[in-house]
Amino acid sequence: MKRLLQHIAFILLISPVAFAQVSFEASVSKKTLGINERLRVDFKMNQDGDNFSPPSFENFRVIGGPNQSVSNSWINGKRSYSKSYSYFLSPRKKGKLTIGQATIEIDGETYKTSPIRIEVSEAVATPNQNNGIDYQASENIHLVTEISNSRPYINQAVSVVYKLYFSPKVNVSNLGEIESPEYTNFWSHRIPISRLEIQRGTYKNETYNYVVWKKMVLYPQQSGELSLDPLTMDVTVEVPTNRMDFFRNRIYTQVPKTLSTGKRTIRVRPFPKEGQPANFSGAVGNFDLKVSTSKSELKASESLQAEVKVSGKGNLKLFSLPKLVVPSALEQYDPEQNESVKTNLSGMNGSRSDTYTLVPQFQGKYPIPPIAFSYFDPISKQYKTLQSKELIVNVTEGPLNKVTTNSPSNTSIGPSKNNISQVGSRFRFIQLNTSLVPISKKGFFKSQWFYLGLLLPIFLVPVLLIAVRKKKDYNADTRGVRLRKANRLAKKYLSEAKKNLTKKETFYIALERALHNYLKAKISIETAEFSKEKIEALLAKHQVTEAVIADFIKLLEHCELTRYAPTTEGAMQSDYQLAIQVISKIDKYIS
User: Fold this and answer.
1) Using 50, 70 and 90 to split pLDDT, how confident is the model at 340?
2) DSSP 8-class letter at 532
3) Domain check: are 31 and 151 in the same one?
4) How many whole angstroms from its chain centre is CA 107?
5) Quick check: 354 and 324 in contact, CB under 8 A?
6) Domain end residue (candidates: 361, 387, 405)
7) pLDDT greater than 80 at residue 69
8) What is the pLDDT of residues 183-198, one digit of tens each?
9) Do 144 and 111 belong to one domain?
10) Considering the domain boundaries, does residue 568 fall inside one?
11) What is the per-residue pLDDT for 151?
């Protein structure tokens, strides 16, 4: 009986808890905050449970927690139980964010909290302080943006340095970037920082320690007021307390903080309109111009390189180099672009160049006219124009240009023009006497041409369909297309040799020149200065087979030997066909 009474008493004691309604809710310290503030979220229940699962906290950074607390009390014979999980969060971005559902199992049932909407705004000037420790942390740490020039011209370098200042009274750790600026309307370059170094400096007339967190070089691309978005960081600040440890060392308390630089404005000035050269392409800084050639004297069909180089300090990557203009008798290939540019806090410095390959076709002296290059100097606030010197290319050997041989000068720029012969009246080309024939009274409508015009499209449609199908089959034959393309290329380079099949010496000179020019065009090398071993190595590098390389070298050697030895027209024809085959085969490997 005594044991029965004990069981009844126990049941009566726990019955208020057993039959109490289960509660599992989420609450936050604030629903509106700045991106540099933090909030606390609590998941609270009135009965103990298992398998607690927090939300993913997407778009938030967990800077503290989970902290667990339990409260169990008896008041007037009634038991009160409470358990909570607490997290401290920092938002990763602005906007309307959601804290998702948390789950827990209580007495075999799964309970969920309701989602909570949070609105995150711009960084606030003074984040809400929770206690004295938090206030001390805020007062002793500052994230600032240092801008070298807030009134630059378009395309003038602006350095931006982000520094974290902290008082010697506190320590910092766990630095992390939350939100980075996008630098809209700027060309940007980040200068890498190998490691953070603590340095000593002054902030608001007080001595501070600081670290350089980020270095950027910006080039504004338009005039007007341009905004720099804020940089936002998470930092753990270690604030000293009044407590001491066993060894009489001061105990520090860690305070997580979110810092923001705030928005900054750069007012960009446009280029002055007064005195702006017509050839100005947006170059800003201080530059030098150099135009040079690898040779000043050479033979026809040999090649030379002409280099247009701009060097100095400024926006080297953000403008076009001036183009090289040469006489029409010099065959010009697309330039090879090179740059050697370094970027530091003061901006870009180094050089850029375009290297053109030129191949003269005829004897003569050909001028390369001066090139003009204009840039804007932001220091003197003036436009400056540089001009290169005229260069002369002297072609000593080769065929004569028949078009320009009888002209007063054979150094014309651009295509040659023939003089128009004028005999008698200068308007002799105008026909004054006409022989007009009256139009037949019978109209075109319902005539035999009219009906022929109607029927002709009907007959043309199947012809066009057949032609289109043939064209598709023709293009689908990729191997045949490449072969035909290679043959055309070979015949293009060998056209001059073909014209001189009856003249032994001229033929082999032209054949050798064609082989060299082909390699110049395909591999961009000056083969006349290379040994046969070097040419073999270059072709092997492009995976040309040994048999094809051997035929190519054999042809070169044959051109040198046969030029001064007797030969037959049949042998010349055989060498010509072999050259076509060799060039076609090489072109399959070097595309």
Assistant:
1) very high
2) H
3) no
4) 59
5) yes
6) 405
7) no
8) 999 999 999 998 889 9
9) no
10) yes
11) 95
Q: Which two tokens stand for residue 377?
A: 């100097």
Is the bond preceding 66 in cis, omega lying within 30 degrees of 0?
Answer: yes
Residues 136 and 264 in one domain: yes
Burial class (CB in 10 A: 0-12, 13-18, 19+), 189: middle
The b-or-e profile of 129-151 (16+ CB within 10 A means b, else e) is: eeeebbebbbebbbbbbebeeee
What region, left, alpha or beta, does residue 108 occupy, with left being phi > 0 and alpha being psi -120 to 50 degrees?
A: left
Instruction: Name the token pair of 308.
Output: 């247009």
Angle of helix 478-493 relative to helix 569-589, nearest 10 degrees, comes to 130
Residue 220 scores a pLDDT above 90: yes
**Mean pLDDT for the stretch of residues 214-241:** 92
Q: Are residues 234 and 290 both part of a single domain?
A: no
> Are the C-beta atoms of 166 and 172 separated by less than 8 Å?
yes
- Same domain? 222 vs 291: no
**Per residue in 475-489, pLDDT tens?**
665 555 555 555 565
Q: Is 259 exposed, middle or buried (0-12, 13-18, 19+ CB in 10 A)?
A: buried
User: Each residue of 420-450: b (16+ CB within 10 Å) or e?
Assistant: eeeeeeeeeeeeeeeeeeeeeeeeeeeeeee
Q: Domain holding 226: CATH number?
A: 2.60.40
Domain contains 563: yes
> Is residue 66 included in any domain, yes or no?
yes
Tens digit of each residue's pLDDT (9 = 90 or more) over 342-397: 999 999 999 999 999 999 988 899 999 999 999 999 999 999 999 999 999 999 98
Beta bridge partners of 337: 354
Each residue's pLDDT tens digit, 520-568: 777 766 655 557 777 888 888 888 888 888 888 888 877 877 766 666 7
Examine the domain organization and report whether 181 and 289 are in the same domain.
no
Residues 136 and 88 in one domain: no
At residue 419, the pLDDT reads 39
Q: Quick one: which of 504, 507, 589 has its CA closest to 549?
A: 589
Same domain membership, residue 147 and residue 169? yes
**Whole-number Å distance between alpha carbons of 147 and 191:** 15
Residue 429 pLDDT? 46
Identify the CATH number of the domain in which residue 514 sits: 1.20.120
Does the reported pTM lie above 0.70?
Answer: no
Residue numbers of the domain that contains 25: 14-121
Say which CATH number the domain at 24 has: 2.60.40.10
pLDDT band at 425 (very low <50, low <70, confident <90, very high): very low
Residue that terminates a domain, selected from 86, 121, 156: 121
The whole-angstrom separation of Cα 55 and Cα 43 is 10
Tell me what pLDDT residue 404 has.
47
Beta-carbon-side half-sphere exposure of residue 244 (alpha carbons within 13 Å): 4
Please, where are the H alpha helices in 318-447? 402-405
CB 393 within 8 A of CB 324: no
C-alpha 89/C-alpha 62 separation (Å) is: 5
Nearest CA to 64 among 146, 174, 159, 139? Answer: 174
In a domain, 574, yes or no: yes
Give the chain's mean pLDDT: 81
Structural domains of the chain, count: 4
Helix, strand, coil proportions of the chain in percent (round to 5)? 25, 40, 35
